[in-house]
Structure formats: C-alpha cells, structure tokens
Description:
The protein is of the alpha+beta class. It has helices spanning 31-34, 50-66, 89-99, 112-116, 154-165, and strands at residues 4-5, 19-22, 28-30, 39-44, 71-77, 105-107, 121-122, 124-129, 134-138, 177-180. The protein is globular and about 45 Å long.
Amino acid sequence: MARTPSNMLPLGTQAPDFRLMDTITLSEMDLNALKGAHGTVIMFICNHCPFVIHVNKALVALAHDFLNKGIGFVAISSNDVENYPQDRPEKMKEHALREGYPFPYLYDETQEVARAYDAACTPDLYLFDKDLKLIYRGQLDDSRPGNDIPPCGEDLRHALQCLLEGKANTRTQKPSIGCNIKWKP
C-alpha cells in the first residue's frame, strides 16, 4: 500500500466552499449547511484504503463524542471511480451505512474540492474553527495499519478539545499518512 503524506495546508486558510452530493441521502449539501457552531472537521476518505479502514471506528467514535458539542463532521471521497469502482457513490452509501457514519459522506466527482483543499491522501483531516479558518490538519493519531498502535484519534481529539476550551493547540501537527487520492487521468 502506498504511504502518501498530507500536504499540510497552511494554518489560517479559509475553508474552500463546496456543494456536493451526499451519497447517503442523495441530496446536495454545502459547507455552510454542514458546518458546526464551534468548528468543522472535513475528512477526505474512501471505501477501499487500508489506512481509512483501519481508523473508521475511531472516526465514528470521535464524531459521536463531538457532534453534540457543536462540531460538524463531513466526509468526502474524491477518488476516480472509473479506475476504482469500489469507491462509486452507491458503494459509498453501502459503506457509510455499514460503518454507521453519523456524518454525511459526499462525492467529489470533479475532484475540484480535493484540489481546493490540497488533499493528498486518505485519510486527510482538517479542523476549521467557527469562522471556517484552518486550525488543525494532519493525522488522526500515530496508529497505522500494522504498527500495533490502536486508533484512538488522539491528535484530532486534542485539537478539538483545545478549540472548545479556547486554548491554543501547541502540539506539533503531524501529516497524515495514507493512500494517495486516486486522481483522474
């Protein structure tokens, strides 16, 4: 499996707006409707990546812990579905329902949203404050498939706690590592 790091979009970057189809409800959703009152987590993921499969339960647990605290969660898949049919929208819906995603799972067919966020891998995670300014980007935690560290979401969880407590996150933000986004030719 490829080990691609995230590009680490500069902190303070304004969240690029988007309007994408939610594969679960089959309705179009935009960033302003999805953002949380206190912050928003945007996750670039996909169905088949072993890195995402490894952290799915931790992502779901994290969302359950913070959705009721005014944090919005959004998952986006931007993979080329012609060459990776397991990431097609109907498969995304099946996957989201099977994993119990408590957040929308959006399909970025044109890949414009992934490019706007400078996303590079799955999972690629971003935390924006209430004004949609980037305050965290990078890994969920130190867990990777095969390294025997259980996924717990420690790095993103700490960033979320800092946001909610109004404290600066002084921890080093480490790039996520995962499969590269499957760009269209």
